[in-house]
Structures are given as C-alpha cells and as structure tokens.
Design goal:
This protein is an alpha/beta fold and 233 residues long. It contains nine helices and ten strands. 39% of the residues are buried.
Length: 233
Amino acid sequence: MLELAGVQAGYGEVQVLYDVSLKVGQGQVVTLLGRNGMGKTTTVSTIMGILPAMAGTISFDGASIARQSPFRVARCGIGLVPEGRQVFPNLTVRENLHVAGRKARPGASPWDIEKVLELLPALRPKLPIMGRLLSGGEQQMLAIGRALMTNPRLLILDEATEGLAPIIRAEIWRCITKIKSTGQSILVIDKNVKALMAIADRHYFIEKGRIVHDCSSEALREDRSLQQRYLGV
C-alpha cells in the first residue's frame, strides 16, 4: 500500500534522511523504531508532504505521492495522528471530529462520530468541551478519533502514547489493537516495544536517518540484542 524507496529529505541544507526504504502492506501494522533524533518524525513529515523529499520515491496504492502537498496526500487516504496531538483548541470535541469527516471509499465500513465514540467512550461526555480543556490523554484520544473520521486507508500514529499515564497508554493500545482488527493498515512510531511486538507484523529500525534493520515481531522476540543495539541509551 505504502512504499518508500531511496527517500532523502532534510531541512534546508541539513540532510536528515538517507535512502530510506520501507513498505506497509494492505492490513499490516508496521513500526518505525529508533532513538530520539534519528529521523522518525522526519520520515512521517516527508510521507505527508509536510517536508518535500529531496530524492527517492514515495508511492501509495501504486501512485506517486512524493512532493505532493499535504492536503493532496491526505485526500489519497492517509490519516495522521501527529506527535503532540495538535487538536483544535477552540473547537469542541464534537466539532474537532465533525470537521475531519470524509466519506469512506465504496465498500468500506465507514467511521463516523458514533463509531468513534464506541471505540473511545471517554470522549462521549466531553463532546461539548473545548479541545484546550481536555487532559493530555483525552486530547490524544481525540487526535486518534479525528484521524479515523477521515476514513483513512492508512493510519499513521506518531508517538501516540508519549507522556501519558500508564492507564491511558493501556487504553490507547487497546484502541490500536481494535483498529487493527478491522483490517486497517497502520504505521506506528512508538517506544513501547513490548506493546508493538504484540500487534505489529514488521519492524523497521532507523539510525542516523538510515534504515539499518527490519524484521518480524517473532524475530525481534528471539533476538533481544536488537533492542539494545538500536534502541538502548
């Protein structure tokens, strides 16, 4: 569904990504793992068109999306839960969800506000509350719900559990697991390797802007040295 091949990107004259290549197949959950500052969010920004690719190809469902503007990438069917949540602070929870709504592709089971609230019931009593008045965990749930309202073919979650209390993190992982069960394709960036191994089909490790290893969850469980080599401090 999504394929990056030889992607290079950076900020001005500072190059961050070097020949990044990865794939996300239909219905797969794929992770991008690495220490802080290694290029994970830059990769997401390049996929979404927020940061233009300097070289390489990015294709989605067989069509090139490299160097497309962000709104065109989103219209192709990629939904983003960005790092830092970025909910609309002066809109209510209901308005945050409503403004993101897009029709599902023919034959798909659509996400609407009621279906999002079934997945994230903690948001139901918050519907009339402004986004800025929510807790961090509630804002993260809203960010996930808002991305689902776009009825994406691919969902990207960038550090969706960062900075949250353990009970909220557990709820987010429950939601991601349930989303996966619908056949949703997902690309996840997160630090909780144990949780990721339970849901992911494949893992890519990025170091200094390069993909240095990829493996299945089974292989990652069997070789714990991978975690220390690429994720340890």
